[in-house]
Write a structure and sequence with these properties.
By secondary structure, the protein is an alpha+beta fold. It has four domains: 2-104, Beta-Lactamase; 112-278, Reverse transcriptase/Diguanylate cyclase domain (Alpha-Beta Plaits); 313-440, Jelly Rolls, CATH 2.60.120.10; 449-688, Rossmann fold, CATH 3.40.50.300. The strands form five sheets. It has an eight-stranded mixed sheet, sandwiched between helices. It is globular. The two termini are 51 Å apart.
Length: 698
Amino acid sequence: MARLTQDGILIDANPSFVRLLGQSGKKLAGRSLLDLLHPDDAAGLRAGHLSKLSAGTILAELRFQAPGRTVWGRASLALARQPGDTPDGLVLTVEDLTAQKAREANLEQERLSDPSTGLANATEFIRRLSRSLSAARRRKRKLAVLVIELEGLGKIGDELGQGSADDLVGQLAARLQELVRPSDCAARTGGNEFGLVLNEVSEADLAAGVGRRLMARLEPEFQFGAAGVRAPVGLGVAIFPDHGQDAQSLLRMARLDLYLGDRSGAAATSPSAGSAAATTGPSTPTRTGEEIPADLEAGDRLARRVEVLEPVSLFQAVPQQVLRRIARYLSEQTAGAGEVVDGAGSPAALRIIEEGVCEVRSESVSLLTLGPGDFMGADSLLLENPLPTEVHALTDCKLLVLDQELVARHAPAGSAFREALRVAAGQRDKHLRSLLDRPRRATSGSTATQVAVYSTKGGSGRTTLALNLAAELGHRHPGEVLLVDLALPYNHVALLANLSPSTSLARVAQATDQGTFRQLLLSSVLPHPAGFMALPTALRPEEAELVKPELLVRALEILSAQYRYLVFDLGVSLDDCVLAALEVSDHLVLVATPELASMHDCRQLIDLATRVLHIPAGRVHTVLNHRAPDSAMSRKVVEEVLGHGLAAEFRYFGAKPELAGLEGKLQVQTDPGGAFSRSLRTLLDQLVERVPSRGAAN
């Protein structure tokens, strides 16, 4: 603990503070607090964060400079007052967080590493590849992405035990680590797949075939154990900028080259890129142990199929090597407009729409409209009594078909693909049944009341509050509440609500015909058991670029007439889509956390909402969400700093809301009588009791 003047000059400090900074009290006295901080933290404070606080307590994590080390501390700075409320300097208390930060750094390192090999994991590989690409663009250099696949691990595990298979993986990882330069990156990107980034590849390396010497030093095959079990090693290569401009594209091309050998573009630059396993002689089986169908030999066809499958939600958890095998054995189906694509007389199969638009009907009622990237048939494959449906082609369609036998082969019990199919089948059946019941519900016929949920910072609990707000509204008005996920590019509504979307707003943007767009849009909406509906706007980060304000306005014209309430979960960035949603919103729920920076940003946002976006001040509802059990700023202090009252306060509830989400439920469902639910209803009562339209009198 230390005392400071109002200008931040240390007056004196207790022994604990002196020991923490490793300096005597005499040396500390008279020094500015800013001089004791890490330069980056001091620069942030000099920008004015402290000077804006006139009452209350500041809580911040800061780095202090001690001789030979940096000390992390949770600093609490409070304004001391004399009798009569006269300011009397500042009181600083610091809790030592150095050990905790070291543990967090270790955990972060573990999070980015493969625990079995110590190499970078897939997440870290993409991050480092992206960083290398930025450097390559600046320097106008080439780099190579290599994908190495170790085949036969399953056989080794069966014959010699899983420990032997793990040992073989460790041997390969150790060899790769020895062969790459410090500036390069070696990572384990899958169970039997490794990735390499080779920076600043020379023209000589390209001419010789990138990876040829590496493969020679690895040896085409490992001989493992007394049994001499063969474990072929395959290699795929992609070169920047020849085969891709971003990390995902290069990785995809390298993986395709791994399978296709010299038939792909990457192999044309790198003659060595063909699989080493492919040269082991006639006794070596093909990659899947099955003969490749003759009509699938063309590399461009396989590449196209993989590109079609990759964005499909069902396949996002499927390993790349499995995805390639599935792509090889897909059959093709075409249907003209008006023809039956799938029905009672059709063989059970999983069908993925490559081109065209289809309509799902039941009891002669049109229920869903499906476009490219969507799928059908999972319910008939996995459920005992699915809702009987018939799928008709609305336009000329091309589909990829995985029949029942192949589904059983590629989606065995316990696999991620099987689980994705199971979830999708159950959700699709419930969705169809709810849509079949919906025409019998009475609708209000009025334009929807639109509520925006926004926070100036991430990690505020905004999405959790938006979900529970929609759930409580859905409980009161079943089927008439829509939650629109606009927290781009990494939107989490579907994840936290345990929903498995198959399409999104971004994917229906290509529909130019308004009637088709309306059908596809409404079919993208998913029902939640709590009574509300959810609309994902993008399923992959790169799709966020397709969600433009024009698309959002076009969608809201349809949705606002279809639902009684629209709730927007908005991202932190004030981009064009967020501003467009705020402009049309009748109410703004502003989620604040008890921190100085949050208070400062909330005041600016309130000013923006009322003065620029013209949302009446009475319809800006600020809520305080405590994200820690020891929040330093009380509700009274927050209201003083903001200059107006709070609509609701949510105390710290630990991980309960997140744990409920993992179980596919929401906090208002699992604990309807708890403090969280009571606070939510307090907020909701203020929203629904007010005038629902800006056009009405205030």
